[in-house]
Write a structure and sequence with these properties.
With 164 residues, the chain is of the alpha+beta class. It has one domain. Helices cover 53% and strands 21% of the residues. Strands 1, 2, 3, 4 and 5 form a five-stranded antiparallel sheet that branches. Strand 4 and strand 5 form a beta hairpin. The longest helix is centred in the N-terminal third of the chain and has 28 residues.
Length: 164
Amino acid sequence: MEEILKKRRTLQETMNFMAALSAGIEPILGRGATSMTTAAGRNLGRKFSEKAKRTDDLLTAVEEVRHILAANHCLWGFEPFKPKGQEQLVTINDKGQHQLQLVFRDCMIRQALLRFGHPQQGSLCNMMYGFFAGALETIMGKKATLEIRHAGENACLKVLTVDA
């Protein structure tokens, strides 16, 4: 247990450094900072998922992403979320795309941003969106996006959308 806590502290220090970098590049690059970090995350997601199990099932693909993150010592605690009144976890939007809501409770990025005093939903958050999109595109062979529905101090709610 002590070894896990030590790794967690080291990782959190790195994320704090990333938050400082993010705060520095956003005013200089403007909207370009978001594009850069999204692309970097997407490339990392593709790289990490090269040997992942392929599937067409969205819930199975999300579990595979969880395994990829854990195997690479990335600590993001997330789970599928089904709002009250919604019958299924996976829904289909008006464009025929599959959607799944995810709650992120233990997010390294959010913790680093809050500790640094940097607002959420910026370039560093977009790196994670890119990661999920890249990993799911590799695992499912379909275009994917991850968008914020709510960013909060204790958890974030995001919508994962994958083409049919």
